[in-house]
Amino acid sequence: xxxAESLTIDVRDVALGKTFPNPDDLQTGDLLFPRKITALEGxxxxxxxxxxxATSLTGREREMTVRQYLGPLLSLYAETVGGGRAxxxxxxxxxxxxxxxxxxxxxxxxxxxxxxxLAFLLAILxxxxxxxxxDWFGLKVEDFLHHPxxxxxxxxxxxxxQDSFFIGHCAMVLRETDGAHSDAGDVYVIEANASSFDHYxxxxxxxxxxxxxxxxxxxxxxxxxFRASRGDCCWHSRHVFFDQADAAAAQAARQALLAAAKLYxxxxxxxxxxxxxxxxGRLYCSELLYxxxxxxxxxxTPLQALDDGGVRTWDWMRANNPMRRAGDLGDTIEKxxxxxxxxxxxxxxxxxxxxxxxxxxxxxxxxxxxxLPYGVEYG
Length: 379
Description:
Order of helices and strands: EHHHHHHHHEEEEHEHHHHHHHE
Radius of gyration: 22 Å
Structural class: alpha+beta
Number of strands: 7
Largest sheet: 7 strands, antiparallel
């Protein structure tokens, strides 16, 4: 059965080898992709989010240009974040001219209304699309909020688009005894994830504990137990290096990955606040895994990068996200390409996409797939 077919399975137990990998089959460096098996249907939540913002504005506000609506300080904020041109005092003043104070480029602003949210979206465009930033300021607010590039951006940020490439999460297995990798050691999961953007960070949990959740109350101490309680299944992949290397090289790489990943424990979760992909100052879920592998690869361990093969690009998103119906993500991406403002920019060959999505990571050519729950392809 393909993921495009209608299928909804509510998983409440950890069925080892069927819905979740058996702990005996896991090793340091393996990647886990938890999510529900569900039909990819329904309207885009990103579109709905932007529409709610649009309808919260008065008719006069929607007819204003973006620059008029924001005013000089928030316009300056949107123009300068990430560019190093504004003084700390200028940005401090700008932050306190909005209901979204303190205004800063982190995920917490996704819930901010009106001027704060719009300035935030523009600040992201400043980081990702500096070449077309000033084209946005002359648009009417109404047109800006309906722009297809904003719909894609908001979907990536909210992680709630319900039609394909923004659903999901990913994490890495660490297997250790007394702090060192061991093929027979205790199995843990390290991930960048939590319950609210203000408190997101890199954390580590036991993969599976006997009797976890038996006390009731929805409390789970293990990663797999908690994920199963949400109705998730778990896809499992492994870097092809480990099938090709001799035992000594595989052991050395796993020890290096364990040490590299644990260095990020407690690191802030965020994205869209730097133009540098893989910035180690803050990490979202798939970026953490990329970063750990890149750290080890940079140390001359013979591992290929997790961003290998031209996957993290707009062209890849377009090719792998066909339009199935009006208003879905494929349709929106086609509109981004056709748009007079954004089209020339995203059409640049190998133009990097905003983020490395979990679906991009799953489809990396350097990853071999070991478990597909119910035989369903991921994403």
